[in-house]
Amino acid sequence: MRYRPPAVVPLDRILPDEPLLMMGAGPVPIPARVAEANSIVINHLGETMNRVIEQVKEMARYVFQTQSARVLGVAGPASAAMEMAICNLVEPGTKVLSVCNGYFSRRLAEMATRCGAEVALLEVGMTETADPEKIEAAIQRERPAVLTLVQGETSNTVWNRHLPEIAAIGRKYECLVVVDAVCTLSTMDMEMDTWGVDAVITGGQKGLSSIPGVSLLAFSELAWKRIESRNAPMAHWCLDARLADRFWNLKSYHYTAPVSGIMAIHEALRLICTETLPARFHRHEISSRALQGGVQAMGLDMFIPEEARLNSVVGIKLPEGVSGDAVRNHMSQVYRVEVSGAFGLDILRIGQMGEQCRAHHVFRTLHAFGSSLRAAGAKIDLPAGVAELERILAEGQVT
Ligand SMILES: *Cc1c(COP(=O)(O)O)cnc(C)c1O
Question: How many angstroms separate the alpha carbon of residue 27 from the centre of ligand 1?
């Protein structure tokens, strides 16, 4: 034998006794029902799976607010769903306009470029929301067949709040609108049909509070027509939407579906349906506003001005001279709460997606954050922060 087995330890010797409370930019904590469902493996084809898939599609239509028959799942991260939307709608030479707010919106542009599209970038300032007028001018100039943008840019915590107007502009110029709603879906309004969005993308591990690795996307009828009439063959076999449709709509084999992950997303969607979207949007809004109010009452500033600020992920400026890494390490080690840094920006990001928006999690997080800031030498008013957090939560009746 040339190879000897490596000396490894069981998982429980690696995992901490008490898990960290995940309050970063994702993944987020999952409900017990979702975790249980994630342990199930059954045949990926057959009557039982068919019933599960039918319900997943029905519930996803509610969450995406669409009647579309083309709701599909994909075994892969949200990026795989992004790539599936792009590579099916784009052929070599297709003109694409990508609205770039930051890291993730730029990823859509990168994917379109790799598919051979002629991509024009519309750069949006770091702390600004995308401006519909500028988008209309760029569409008139570039005449794209596809427009890509994010609803929420997780990397710098910007919200493209004018998405409904932007989607309407896309329609006016017969340009398909592709929206990354990975961090926002089920945390705020996203009316696919009413707004006229042609592809909506989400992942499991953010707003939906499911596991990473199984994602959902929906195409409009217009988008589906474009896919059916494409000339160029699909380079990606796994991401071919027409092949995926065989599994998701025709009860037959494409590839072996990620059964456990689909069970998990079924339960995550079911919990959303039980809560209802209006109640869920309210919980997210109040929880996030309470957290932001608490942070500001402690004496800190938010990174993004209110009119462009995302609620699903909260970006906080650090006081002069305070190390973000020191604060984050202290939060993890002493309080078992994990938050995120940012791609090169001097901010901390606290997630407000799905299970992260529970009063007990937000209290624990704000306290851990304030205490750790103090330990790092910052002068902040922690009691004032906690009082403001409590006031806004009580006013919004979120517990
Ligand atoms: C997290 C995120 C992604 C990427 O998700 P992965 O599952 O890591 O591929 C894409 N877009 C946005 C807006 C995100 O927040």
Answer: 10
Residue 343 has pLDDT above 80, yes or no: no
Q: 3-state secondary structure string, the chain?
A: CCCCCCCCCCHHHCCCCCCCEECCCCCCCCCHHHHHHCCCCCCCCCHHHHHHHHHHHHHHHHHHCCCCCEEEEEECCHHHHHHHHHHHHCCCCCEEEEEECCHHHHHHHHHHHHCCCEEEEEECCCCCCCCHHHHHHHHHHHCCCEEEEECEECCCCEECCCHHHHHHHHHHCCCEEEEECCCCECCECCCHHHHCCCEEEECCCCCCCCCCCEEEEEECHHHHHHHHCCCCCCCCCCCCHHHHHHHHHHCCCCCCCCHHHHHHHHHHHHHHHHHCHHHHHHHHHHHHHHHHHHHHHCCCCECCCHHHECCCEEEEECCCCCCHHHHHHHHHHHHCEECECCCCCCEEEEECCHHHCCHHHHHHHHHHHHHHHHHCCCCCCHHHHHHHHHHHHHHCCCC
For the cut 90, the answer to whether the pLDDT of residue 9 exceeds it is: yes
* Cα–ligand 1 centroid distance for 182 (angstroms): 6
Mean pLDDT of the chain: 97
pTM (predicted TM-score): 0.97
Pocket, ligand 1, Cβ cutoff 6 A: 26, 77-79, 104, 150, 152, 154, 180, 182-183, 203, 206, 212
Q: Which atom of ligand 1 is nearest to the CA of 155?
A: 15
